[in-house]
Amino acid sequence: MNSLHFTPLAASLFSLLAIVSLILVFVMLGSRWLQNYLLAYTGQCWLIALLSAAVGYYGGYRELYLVAVLTALFRGLALPYILWRITARMGVSRELHEIIKPSSALVIGAALVLLALAVAERIGPSLTNADNVVLLALTVMLSMKLIGFLMLSVRHEAMSQILGLLVLENGIFLGSQILVPGMPLLLELVILFDLLVAVACFGVLTRYLVTHVGSTSSLSLRRLRG
Predict the structure, then answer these.
(1) Residue 4 pLDDT greater than 50, yes or no
(2) Which residue would you say has higher pLDDT here, 56 or 115?
(3) Any domain includes 226
(4) Which residues contact 189 (CB under 8 A, 6 or more apart)?
(5) Gyration radius of the chain over CA positions
(6) Phi/psi at 94 (nearest 5 deg)?
(7) Phi and psi of 142, rounded to 5°?
(8) Per-residue model confidence (pLDDT) at position 220
(9) What phi and psi, each to the nearest 5 degrees, are found at residue 172?
(10) Most-buried pick from 59, 70, 170, 191 (CB within 10 A)?
């Protein structure tokens, strides 16, 4: 999509969906409860589905309607359902192994957003027709990637680990809808399939941890070292 064709309404809608998606990442980052993680992730996936549909409508990419439907079904329904089932089997309702407090994690997350903004402003001019919406999409994408890595680093519950990975992937997916909306549909389908495989492997791993280790913390994996 050529960003010069964005109408003011479309630009405002894209910006709103991207910003709210980023805010939901901070909901996850500032909470200890796994239920809040899952609710925020589910809401984020539905917002990304709406963004795909909106970009498809305003940009004339009809294949994005199918991407929006698949995103809503797989990311917004199937994956959260699987994660809810796994959480219920784990019997753990909150993060028990924290390196830093949620308040400190929020401050670090805000710093990462500023870093992402600085990087986006630096590389944005090199993009074709880089207007405010494109720069915002690039900032949100980089912010979600960095915060996803932060969650992987400072949270050790198995659910927190997989959600950090999913947030990271959501950031890439969200940014691609605005930056490269003409991405081949087959590639989108491959990404969705990879997510299902990753969550299935995660379910097997958590079942092993609960059965053989008696804990859902990724720190317990150190026992597997020879």
Answers:
(1) no
(2) 115
(3) no
(4) 70
(5) 18
(6) -150, 165
(7) -65, -40
(8) 54
(9) -65, -45
(10) 170
**Stretch among 18-27, 66-75, 140-149 having the lowest mean pLDDT:** 66-75
Which amino acid is present at 218? S
Give 6's DSSP letter: -
Please tell me the pTM assigned to this model: 0.82
**Does some domain include residue 15?**
yes
Please give the single-letter amino acid code of residue 66.
Answer: L
Each residue's pLDDT tens digit, 6-47: 677 888 898 899 999 999 999 988 887 888 888 999 999 999
**What's the number of domains the chain is made of?**
1
82-111 pLDDT tens trace: 888 877 777 766 776 667 888 888 999 999
User: 120, 140 in Cβ contact below 8 A?
Assistant: no
Question: 111: how many CB neighbours lie within 10 A of its CB?
Answer: 12
In whole angstroms, what is the distance from residue 92 CA to residue 37 CA? Answer: 13
**Six token digits for residue 112:** 């990462």
Domain around 183:
3-221
Instruction: Give the separation between CA 72 and CA 75, rounded to whole angstroms.
Output: 6
Angstrom distance (rounded) from CA 209 to CA 159 = 12
For residue 123, what are the CA distances in angstroms to 7, 88, 95, 134, 135?
Answer: 24, 44, 37, 11, 9
Q: Per the domain annotation, does 211 fall within a domain?
A: yes
Q: State residue 166's pLDDT score.
A: 86
